[in-house]
Write a structure and sequence with these properties.
This protein is an alpha/beta fold. Helix content is 37%, strand content 19%. Strand 2, helix 2 and strand 3 form a beta-alpha-beta unit.
Amino acid sequence: MENLLFGIRPLLEALDEGKLPEKVLLQKGLSGDNFKRLFKKIRDKKVPFQMVPAEKLKKITKQNHQGVIAYLSLIYYISIENLVKQFDESSGKGLIVIIDRITDIRNLGAIARTAECAGVHGIIMPSKGSASINADAIKTSVGALSRIPVCRENDLMEAIEFLKLCGIAIIACTERSSQSIYETNMDRPIALVFGSEEKGISNYLLNIADEKAAIPMKGKTSSLNVSVAAGIAIFEALRQRAS
C-alpha cells in the first residue's frame, strides 16, 4: 500500500500539521498517554478509524508500527465552509457536485474529471461508504482529483442543510422524478446530487432535496452509468448558463 504512515508520534505530528488520513488502523488494547492523546485527536478531527487485532497490522507491514497504521490522503481536502466561501466569490452562479455512496473508483474518477473540465467549484463526498481517493482514482480522473476542491463530510444530510442555509439549491438527479433536467432551472447557485448505480441516492437525501430531476430515457435500458449521468447533468447546467 502506498502512502502509509506508521507509529503514534509520526501520526500525531501529521495531525498537528493539518494532514488528515483517509483512515487509521489502531491495534486493540493500546494504552499510554501518547496513545490517549492520539486517540483524542483522531476523534476530535473526525478521522475514520478501526480497532483491529495485531495480526492484521502485521499482514500490512513488517515495520515497527507501534500499533498504529494511517492511510494518508493523496489530496488536500477542503472544509465545506471554505468551499462555500469560494463559491460565493465566484460569478454568483456556482456549481457543486455531491456524490452519495459511489464506491467504484472509476466512476469517482470519471465524475471528478467531468466536474473539473466543466469548472465545477467542488465535490462533496461522504467520509465513509464511498470510494477512497487513491492513486487509481487520481489516475482515472487524469489528475482532476488533485485540481478540483474536494470536501469530505461525515454526514451528507448536515452538509446539505448547511448548503441550503447558504442559499444553494439542492437538485437530486434521479430517475424517480417526473421533471427532467431540461425543465429544471440550473441558472442559479446549485448543488447536483448523484447516487450509486446500484442503490441510487439515499432516501433521506432525496427527501431534503429542493428538487428532483431525471434524464429522459428513450430506450429499454432503465438507467445510465452514474458518471455518464453526471456528465449530462453538469453540462446541461453549463448550457443553461451560457444561453
